[in-house]
Amino acid sequence: MPLGAMGASANSGRHGFKKAGLTKQARAGLTFPVSRMQSKLKQKKLAMRTGTLAAVYATAVAEHIMSHVLDAAHEHSSAKGDMTRRLTINDLVQAVRTDPDTARLFADFSFSTHTSAIQPRKVQKMIMTKEDWEKLQKKKEGNAPPAKSGGKKKS
């Protein structure tokens, strides 16, 4: 039987149901929105024209960095013995500051709501080389103010 006899025309593929459109984000297999990154790149006017692949690449890089930070924060949280399912800002800050690469990446960034649970000396010691750390300690010892004496006693 020819197709026309069954009630469907030869062009039924063209006039049938339309396939759902895929977003740039879905095509790239990313979680972060590519179109939003593209509009931000256009707003910054880094170049006269910005291609779609630039936005896809920038989105993939941002997603990879966030994935790395969240994995490290989860490791820090579970290493403390917390069995909670929620990461705190302290977990994120500690994860960023203890890894040398992400610490350099987020060096100019200030986390505004964390407590002082993270000790800057420990982070600085981890980032610096052993020789640089020893030089810094010697420099601090040399510049230390002299100890205060008892002074004059009131009689």
Explain the overall architecture.
- By secondary structure, the chain is mainly α.
- The chain has a single domain, classed as Histone, subunit A.
- 55% of the residues lie in helices and 0% in strands.
- It is built from 8 helices and no strands.
- The protein has helices at residues 12-15, 24-28, 34-44, 52-79, 89-98, 100-105, 120-127, 130-142.
- The longest helix has 28 residues, at 52-79.
- The N and C termini lie far apart (123 Å).
Briefly, what is this?
The chain is mostly helical.
Would you spell out the secondary-structure blueprint of this structure?
Blueprint: H1 12-15, H2 24-28, H3 34-44, H4 52-79, H5 89-98, H6 100-105, H7 120-127, H8 130-142
Output the helix-strand order.
Answer: HHHHHHHH
Number of E-type strands: 0
DSSP strand content = under 5%
- Overall structural domain count: 1
End-to-end CA span: 123 Å
Kindly list the characteristics that best describe this protein:
155 residues, mainly alpha, Histone, subunit A, 8 helices, elongated
